[in-house]
Amino acid sequence: MPGALFGLFEINSDTGEVVTTTTLDREVQEVLTLQVLVRDGGAPALSGTTTILCTVGDENDHAPEIIVPRHDIEVLENQEPGLDTNSVDTHFMECIQHLVSNGNTDEYFAINETSGELSITRALDREQVSNFTLVILCSDLGDPPRSSMVQLQVRVLDDNDHSPSFSRLHYQASVREDAQVGTVVLVLSAVDKDEGLNGKTEYSLADEASGAFTIDPVVGTLRTSHILDREARAEHTFKAVARDCGVQGSRSTTVIIKVHVTDVNDNDPVWEQNPFDIFLSPQSPTNQMTAILRASDPDLGPNGTVIISFAEPQSVFSINEYTGEIQLQQNSASEYFPIWLQLKVVDQGFPARTTTGLLVIHMEGEDVRISFSQHLYNGIVPENCEAGECQVFCTLSQF
Ligand SMILES: [Ca+2]
Ligand SMILES: [Ca+2]
Ligand SMILES: [Ca+2]
Ligand SMILES: [Ca+2]
After folding, report:
1. Residues 108-136: what's their mean pLDDT?
2. How many other CB atoms sit within 10 Å of the CB of residue 184?
């Protein structure tokens, strides 16, 4: 009979079979009420009515709908497990089961099967895994079961849990003592695995009281900051510090640096005594040591090894070039005393440096007289010097 549901059903007028003419939706109307009229063929026709209650059976035709507050989640690393990271809030969640179906690297996450509450199973380590793409599967228990999926991006926020790490346990380097100011001695490198400022390293020096070295705070280049002097200090030991820029408390690492200053031949040999006087008597024996000349050189190795000799070859005296021993070689009766002999001492550096000296040999009973202590005096007088302003001193000796 005509009604609200007219058109949804039709009836076979011979057999009385009622069939649907369209698809029914339980979620629109669960119970349908039909009025059916039956009439015979007599005259007058007799009729009757009846009511059919048609219940639309449930079919699991809706997948669960998932609503999440946000798809991007941020979690700080090193947080204790049990702290909720987020809840997957669901709708139409009758008998819904939740499951992390994908992206759960190393099983860092767990989801409450019924409530959908997502949590971490242990502390996250950003330096190990910094991002997760979790796929959450929500299923109902219908027949057949239906499910929906949602994708969550989890970004692990950095905690400053790493100190800068130098590439070596300690550093050693050598630098020439005549290196120009600013010479690169070493380039330090420290790595900090953290992110952003937590991983940004700055370098500085500690216990470097001499001020001979500086370090570039950004790139770690260690340079000389003034002229070095091996003879004053042959080795410098100090520390370098790499500190991160963590805002919530920085972390640092210290490393020992040893810098060896290598020698340069920058010192002339020095006589222990100059001029050097020897006093002979007519009985002085030949071929025996009469005196020892000494000279030293503060440089290292060959640069500081000295060889002593006469400036000009001469026959009356000999000199051992290594020990400085002077010997009378022949009878000196015919000589005029005192005798002045130019000496030289040469180091073994390259190039070698030379210092001259004077040996004065006296004979017992020689005339006492006043003489200049040196044969040759060197003086430097600046140009444009006013008269009487510049002086050169010559010393006299009395014998
Ligand atoms: Ca750090
Ligand atoms: Ca970290
Ligand atoms: Ca020297
Ligand atoms: Ca030197």
Report:
1. 90
2. 13
